[in-house]
Amino acid sequence: MEPIPETVRAIEELGPFVAEGELLEALTALSREVERVAPRCVGMSVSSREYGVTFTFVASALQVAFLDAVQFLDGGPCVKSIERGVKVAYTVPEATDEEAWALFARAAAATGIGSTLTLPLITDGVIQGSVNLYGATSDAFDGTHEQMAALFETTADRIVTNADLTFSTRGVAEDAPHILEAESVLDRSAAVVADFQHVDPTTARDRIRTAARRAGISPDQLAEALVSLGG
What we know:
The chain has nine helices and seven strands. It is of the alpha+beta class. β5 and β6 form a beta hairpin. The radius of gyration is 17 Å and the shape is globular.
């Protein structure tokens, strides 16, 4: 796992932090336990709440960071969990034009995700973040909720203790191909968001940039993925 430059810069503007290896060790162990409990889990991210703003703390792949970004942009189970401090189990609907979380539903379906399970990370009664699990099938997390909750409850303190440390993700985000005519792609993605959220294109572009930054990916990467959802 390598640092996400976009997220690191965002957090640096809010407050200082230092890099340590203990967090990576904890998350690696967690991912193995998650795979054991739910073999159809294909992605995981951890979101951290800093100064009232939620950022992707770590993501297992660029695709997962993209799905986090879509939720920061237009809502989803991750956002609901971290705002309310509750577990959220979500099955991706076959029809993705429903009003609630419509953009996320479409993005999840397009990337082969059938269900999600989001668990809040709470210490001393304070919501510090959430663990976001992505499953390949609609039943990926059936019968695992209690086990997952127990798993992350026992390790939440260790994660949250390190929540002021480096924000990381796999190097795959760094390897994404350069997007030609990035502004054109951003314009087209803004049209998609403007249509979903009933806002003007300028507002949509600003929201895309903000969501990408919070998820630790570039606006161009998010824009390219959003354009594919506009059909």
